[in-house]
Amino acid sequence: MNSQLTLKKALFTLLFLVMGAAVFAQGTGKISGTVSDKKTGETLIGVSVKLAGTTKGVGTDVDGKYVLPGLTEGKHIIEISYVGYATKRITDVEVKSGVTTSLNVVMEEASSQTLKQVVITANFKQESVNSLYAQQKNSSVISDGISSDQIKKSPDKNTSEALRRVSGATIQDNKFVVVRGLSDRYNTATLDNSTLPSTEPNRKAFSFDIVPANLVDKITISKTATPDLPADFAGGAVQITTKDIPDDNFISFGVGYGYNSQSTFKDFLATSKNALNYLGFDDGSKQLADNFPSRNKILSGLTPARNVGALKSLPNDFTINNNSALPSQNYQFSMGRVKHFKDDSRFGALVSLTYRNSQNIGEDVKRAFYVYDYNDNQYKFSTNLGALANFAYSFGKNKISFKNIYNKNYDDNYTERTGINQGSTTINRFYAYDVMQKSLFKSTLEGEHQIGGKSSKLKWSASFSNVTNDQPNQLKINYAKALASQNDPSVPYQANITSLGKENTRLFSNLNENIYAGDVNYSTPVKLFNASSTFKAGLGSQYRERTFNARFIGAELHSNDADEMQRIRALPVNQIFSPSLIQSGVYKLNEIGSDVDSYDANSFTNYGYAMLDQKFGEKFRAVYGVRVENYNVQLSNVKKTYVDDTQLDVLPSVNLTYSLTAKSNLRASYYRTLARPEFRELTLSSYYDYELLANQSGNPNLKRTLIDNADLRYEIYPGAGEILSVSAFYKNFNNAIESYRYDVLSTPDISYFNTAKAYSYGLEFEVRKNLGFIGGGQFLKNTTAYANVSLVKSKIKNPEDQNYIDKTRPMVGQSPYVVNAGLQHTALNNKLSLNVLYNRIGRRIIQASGITFPSTWEAPRDVIDFQAGYKVIKSRGEIKLNVGDILNQRNTIYFDYNKNKKYDTNTGGDETIMSYKPGTNVSLSFSYSF
Fold first, then answer.
1. Four-residue CA torsion sign, 873, 874, 876, 877
2. 209: DSSP letter
3. What is the maximum alpha-carbon separation in the chain?
4. Across residues 569-578, what is the average pLDDT?
5. Are 441 and 405 in contact (CB under 8 A)?
6. What are 692-741's pLDDT values in tens digits?
7. CA distances from 229 to 396, 405, 858, 895 (A)
8. Nearest Cα residue to 665 out of 130, 126, 140
9. How many Cα atoms occupy the beta-carbon half-sphere of 146 within 13 Å?
10. Using CA atoms, how far apart are residues 475 and 320, in angstroms rounded to an integer?
11. CA-CA distance, 144 to 766, in Å (whole number)?
């Protein structure tokens, strides 16, 4: 009884506190924003921001940010003052109950004669426009971006969707970045100022879709380099900054479901799944047993009992179930908390969880090459689990942040293939079971401090990343019969299980990579030629270590009874390795491969830089400096170290900006960057890729690419958030890394080489303009059109070590043009937002030509996406409709035999290598914040 009374008291007390807090909060709101220098864009520390006529105020923190809480509803005047700058009064700043009003302010340096008497007055709307202008014009490099305010107004739910709005950027498969038509090799990405590890073992790929859009502070793509940026890019450096201290406490969740026209509700073939698979994890049943014999023991010969025991321990459940493909699912939860202390210090926390599951079908995927002519049906079960946890404490002129991100991906692919192999004159039925588990964990501790009284800043960070890639029990098995018996049902298909090759073994591979990184950066304002400038310098290191293990294992059928052999080889996959057959002793465990299939790799990068952001008068600005990188990479197997390369690179850069008018800039830049081969591209190991119908191997003799870049750009800002620009660029590549196909055999080998010289040059046009100037009332005033067009010419000369068909050609992955365009419209007082997006990438080489066959090209395709968002429940909730790839045109890779630079189908003279339809995606989601 006493416990019940105690519980009631506790509940009444809690209810009273909640009601009291609600009553206390009624009628109050906040104003928050960032204060920066009008000419340089640098944020200002210690600026006084107060309610005019009162003592209520705060100072900007080390990021130049402020929060002015506890303001009554209505319009206020805010006064901003700072030593050496003209005081600013902002009128008509409206505060609403329970809402944070965003007010970014730009400050203008005052001359000594007018320092004490100058007060600049502007209203809220004018200052918002001034701030946006300053952000656009004051970038030190040629760049494009999107802010958190712009993201708020869009229906984007994650970073991948938001990136598609950044000029010149295209995201493929939610992870591969294309900037200025250059493939992922020549682009890089950072998350919170440290390099984002690749989630793919063989190429640069970043899971942009795991960061919720509402947690993004800003996204910037730098198309030219400064010394403080990573050096390994030529197309663009994607910089994503997440929030750490939210303006308000919030909880938000989202639920979404999607339909794919090629997959949803159609027959979906797959192995059995358990609860852990739906969460993105494997239960361990597909792994090799801990006591499984080593390669040396297998090759030395096992006893009959040990042979049977080892074979039985292999995962042998290959039963396929037929169910309907479910709609895709997407769930998202985010929470933010902020605590304000009496001394104006703040502690903030942001936590987010995302979950996605999809079941997609690749129906009638055509794959052909030389003697092969196949059709695939592929079934992909995919689960993705993501988490983000950011914590930060801002006190005085200091800030400490602890940021973490985790992503886990589980893909289970099942492939059924039919078709003809003219080389063996057989008709085939091929089956592949392929599970891939990938994970990414990244943790960063960073600090930012004001040093001295001149707004000097010291920034530092230390980070740890871990990347795993686990491929357990990839089984490939082929059944074949003579082509002459194609229509004879009495002749059975026979499984190729009498001997092992990499195209019919079980692959067990595991990759684990750790990355340790740290840096320290110092910046300080200086006076040069009677103008404010900024000096910046920094040091940093990154150490990567990777271990990759691969085993190619299989059961070979041995019997002296020919009839028994034929009977067993005709059994279906789910019976051919049954426990009873293994127990009878007809199978022998074997392992192929060599010591080079596994490797250890590490790289150590040390860098330092110094740069000066210098103004000459009122209109001219130069950002110049040098970055020095020392890089060592080593690869080894159990026998020897076969790669040990050290390079010292001096990488200068200069970015010049001349302000022609208050609304236009002329920019010019030169910078040197580089591109290094990935670990996988340097290895001696080789594996069979059943989708490419080819072996993949590395080249330990690859060299890093040095790239000299030059850019020229003229930009006009007609209005806030608007731009009209034209750019020209030139890039010279020394030792460009290219993938090529060695095709003297029926099964080609895909590897890499360096080309001595390559270049690309082009023009880029960009426009973002509100259509209100046309007239037509409010509709056009609420509509914005934007377009970006890149026209690129590239040329490369193939090496002369082989008689390659193409002596010269465009660079691999370089598109001759990229078109991004769209229309954005808002209505009903910004409650309704509509977006139409268009993208087209010109044809590009996927694999460079070999000795027998020319280069393979990817045909261009038109992609149209539609997005709609409608805010409900007092704008706290939002319903979003996304329709992706409305046209659903085929993805096609082909040989351009007639050399007319377009795809003409097989009957038109070209040969199709691969072709499929990805399907149109329709998703409906609901999100709510409180």
1. positive
2. G
3. 106
4. 95
5. yes
6. 889 999 999 999 999 999 999 999 988 877 889 999 999 999 999 999 98
7. 28, 22, 32, 39
8. 140
9. 23
10. 14
11. 10
Element spanning 129, H or E? helix 124-137
DSSP calls for 275-337? HHHHTT---STTSPPTTPPPHHHHHH---HHHHHHHHHHS------EEEEPPPEEEEEEEEEE
Alpha helix positions (H), 794-852: none
Give one word for 529, left, alpha or beta, with left for phi > 0 and alpha for psi -120 to 50. left
Q: Which residue has the tokens 């073994």?
A: 505
Cα 47 to Cα 65: distance, rounded to the nearest angstrom: 9
The answer to whether the CB of 823 falls within 8 A of the CB of 785 is yes
65-108 confidence digits (pLDDT tens): 899 988 899 899 999 999 888 889 999 898 988 888 888 898 88
> Which residue bears the tokens 């196909």?
741
User: How far is it, in rounded angstroms, from Cα 516 to Cα 544?
Assistant: 7
Q: Which residue has the tokens 């740069």?
A: 611
Residue 260 has which token pair? 């794919």
pLDDT band, very low/low/confident/very high, at 215 (cuts 50, 70, 90): confident
Which residues on neighbouring strands pair with residue 462, listed in sequence order?
Answer: 445, 518
CA distance 441 to 418: 40
- Could you give the angle at the alpha carbon of 756 between the alpha carbons of 752 and 757, nearest 5°? 110
For the chain, the distance separating the N- and C-terminal CA atoms, rounded to the nearest angstrom, is 36
Tell me the pLDDT tens digit for each residue of 265-306. 999 999 999 999 998 898 888 999 999 999 999 999 999 999
Burial letters for 671-684: b for 16+ Cβ neighbours within 10 Å, e otherwise?
A: bbbbbbbbbbbbbb
Q: How far apart are CA 610 and CA 627, in angstroms?
A: 7
Using only the alpha carbons of the chain, give its radius of gyration: 30
- Concatenate the DSSP letters of all residues of 598-633 into one string: SEEEEEEEEEEEEEEEEEETTTEEEEEEEEEEEEEE
Inter-residue contact 418 to 374 (CB < 8 Å): yes
- Residue 469 identity (one-letter amino acid): N
- Asked if residues 813 and 182 have their Cβ atoms less than 8 Å apart, the reply is yes
- CB 209 within 8 Å of CB 159: yes
Strand partners, 367: 374, 914
What is the rounded (10 degree) CA torsion for 130, 104, 879, 722?
20
Do 216 and 350 contact (CB within 8 A), yes or no?
Answer: no
Q: Is 521 helix (H, G, I), strand (E, B) or coil?
A: strand
Degrees to nearest 5, angle at CA 570 with 564 and 576: 85
Q: Is the pLDDT of residue 14 over 60?
A: no
Q: How far apart are CA 522 and CA 354, in angstroms?
A: 36
Beta partners for 914? 367, 893
CB 669 within 8 A of CB 721: no
DSSP string, 362-403: EEEEEEEETTEEEEEEEEEEEEEEEEEEEEEEEETTEEEEEE
**Tokens matching residue 855:** 């280069």
Instruction: Classify the C-alpha dihedral 50-55-60-61 as positive or negative.
Output: negative
Nearest CA to 638 among 700, 685, 603, 595?
A: 595
What is the SS3 string spanning 465-497? EEEEEEEEEEEEEEEEEEHHHCCCCCCCCEECC
Encoded tokens for 196 = 């984002």
Tokens standing for residue 364? 């009638």
CA 463, CA 215: separation in Å to the nearest integer?
20
> Is 162 within 8 Å of 152 (Cβ atoms)?
no
What is the chain's length? 930
For residue 190 the two structure tokens come to 């950072």
